[in-house]
Amino acid sequence: MSNRTVSQRPNGQNQGKICQFKLVLLGESAVGKSSLVLRFVKGQFHEFQESTIGAAFLTQTVCLDDTTVKFEIWDTAGQERYHSLAPMYYRGAQAAIVVYDITNQDTFGRAKTWVKELQRQASPNIVIALAGNKTDLANKRSVEYEEASQYAEENALLFMETSAKTAMNVNDIFLAIAKKLPKNDGNVGNGLTSPGSRRLGDADGGSRMSSGCCK
Amino acid sequence: MDEEYDAVVLGTGLKECILSGMLSVSGKKVLHIDRNKYYGGESASITPLQDLFERFKAPPPDETIYCKGRDWNVDLIPKFLMANGSLVKLLIKTGVTRYLEFKSVEGSYVYKSGKIYKVPVDQKEALASDLMGMFEKRRFRNFLVFVQDFDENDPRTWKDIDPKRTTIQELYDKFGLDKNTQDFTGHALALYRDDDYLNTLATETIERIKLYSDSLARYGKSPYLYPLYGLGELPQGFARLSAIYGGTYMLDKPVDEIVLEGNKVMGVRSGSEVVRCKQVYCDPSYVTDRVKKTGQVIRCICLLDHPIPNIKDALSCQIIIPQKQVNRKSDIYVSQVSYTHQVAAKGWFIAMVSTTVETCDPENEIKPGIDLLGRIKQKFVTVSDYYEPINDGTESQIFISSSYDATTHFGTTCDDVLDIFLRGTGEHFDFSKVKLEGGDEEP
Questions:
Q1: Contact present, B61 and B74 (Cβ < 8 Å)
Q2: Inter-residue contact B177 to B140 (CB < 8 Å)
Q3: How far, in Å, are A20, A40, A167 from residue A71 at the CA level?
Q4: Looking at domain B57-106+295-386, which of 3.30.519.10, 3.40.50.300, 2.20.28.120, 3.10.290.10 is its CATH number?
Q5: Is this complex's ipTM strictly greater than 0.85?
Q6: Which of A57, A189, B41, B431 minimizes the number of CB atoms within 10 Å of its CB?
């Protein structure tokens, strides 16, 4: 768990309510999952992004009117490659972005499989967004916008075409998810799924990991 | 698969996943394979419930009784984590704890003459406990005070015992503890499985009692912790650590042969593919010709629609039945977890009774434990062989873990893992190689 409270907006003003959500990324290898996260969290893009980003998860906050939404973003760490993603990955996820590559029809087919998998495995209230990534390569497009859009509508998914390279719609898709997530009291605070449970290494029994014992 | 790896790890049980994580963190190129389509091997938590019933060839569970199958994650091997034990330290130092949530186990009990009692662990509880008579309480209290103050490096705390010579039996006798008190001290506090420890150094038992009380001091009601969604989350957490550091994962992949060149491993064959590697790390089931059977463990999974009687409706607990109480050589362990741990449907409890097998009728051996549970809705019994490697692996570079023993916590599990890592790499694991900034990173 992250070791700091996020109590400030980027402009330094204090916020009223902070909600924390676990968001997972799904999709075939090389569709740009890590690149989307890196663009959203760090504003960076690397043409030859390595296949894993080497982090347990990254965090980023989004500000809505009276609420700060803090995303704890999990990347697959390559475990999707041979269909070996651990069920732990979906646990407690309140949001998911299923990514495909608009230049590769197969990845769209796989994206549908991931959506089904989420509907089967994840919590019933999970907010799912479908991202057609790599719109900067629109000249090589093989998945039509309308086709994906219609599929998303039929399955009640948020949908956007994105480009991690140009940053198109990257912040927007996270913002759209943030808006759709329920901001009730259950999500305020420490991000733990069960009352009375704890993360180890906590100094205060809350969600914060004390840095002293684990560095 | 036509790449060469530093290490191929076979099986995704907890031991193999910890090893895989440590190897990847140490910069080794790791391929991790499991023949099953799920993580965890023998240390998996089975979900949905249908899969558990199928595994034991029982007719499918009735959803009107057991609710949704996906609400269940049933451990195959019962264990708890000692709050101050080596697995918890490993979880914290590797950062894997970030993927997990834990709950404290609510109660720790010991069986005496057909009844169960809360394990007294501090002076106050010792004096209040019904487990002992008035004078014995005083003696036990004095013993606990001595243990708490004892410091191997400070002769003033030794009170004329010799840390290098005094056995625990001699220490018990010095404090005048009677057999009953010795029994629960050795078995419910120091967590020895049998009485072989009585002739070992007192300092070892003192160390174990301190682990128990330090663990208790960390979070409260008992020294034990249990992860939400079951113990199967532990191997998955370490597998993710391995993956984050570049480990490659393949589930549902048959392993047909470990290929040797001379006496040394050179690869692993799956079907017609051979993946080359310098080392193999695996559980005994992948190398049946390189392990020997050294015992058996019986484990009985019981589904209950009520908590175990006489534990004040605790949602989780451990009960230890010391061997002498039931005329055995090794203890019987009972553990209970429940729907509050996300391992069972609402209102349901999972109890496990386990012990080291001593006779040819193991089911009868666990009867004293089963009898404590009250009405049992469904019962699944496994008797598993306990395997150990026949050599230390340095010649073949095939490093094999032992099966999971009947102990109640992960102490021996971690010892085995750290020992294998040392044998395999010639080094102790360097925790400073784990970068903990991921997840703690300020955007």
A1: no
A2: yes
A3: 6, 11, 18
A4: 3.30.519.10
A5: no
A6: A189
Q: State how far residue A91 is from chain B, nearest Cα, in angstroms.
A: 9
CA distance B311 to chain A (A): 19
Q: What is the CATH number of domain B4-43+232-292+387-433?
A: 3.50.50.60
Q: Could you say which of A56, A83, A213 has the minimum Cβ distance to residue B98? A: A56
> Closest Cα to residue B350, out of B115, B63, B46?
B46
CA distance B132 to B209: 18
Pairwise CA distance, residues A191 & A178, whole Å: 15
Element (H, E) at B69: none
Can you give the pTM of this predicted structure? 0.90
Give yes or no for a contact between B421 and B331, defined as CB atoms under 8 angstroms apart. Answer: no
Least confident window among A57-71, A176-190, B53-67: A176-190
Query: b/e for B166-189, b at 16 or more Cβ within 10 A?
Result: bbbbebbeebebeebbbbbbbbbb
Arch. (CATH architecture) of B119-219? Orthogonal Bundle (1.10)
Partner-chain contact B97 A41, CB within 8 Å: no
Residues of A (133-192) whose Cβ lies below 8 Å from B? 192
Per-residue pLDDT tens over the stretch B320-350: 999 999 999 999 999 999 999 999 999 999 9
**pLDDT for position A6:** 42
Q: Is B20 exposed, middle or buried (0-12, 13-18, 19+ CB in 10 A)?
A: buried
B118 bridge partner residues:
B109
Contact status, residue B281 vs residue B7, Cβ threshold 8 Å: yes
Instruction: Tell whether B233 lies on the interface with A, counting CB pairs under 8 A.
Output: yes
Question: Domain segments of chain B: what residues?
Answer: 4-43+232-292+387-433, 57-106+295-386, 119-219
* Digit-coded pLDDT (tens) for A14-58: 547 888 899 999 999 999 998 999 999 989 898 877 665 556 788
Q: CA B430, B433, B438, B442 torsion: positive or negative?
A: positive
The single residue listed with the structure tokens 């999952």 is A33
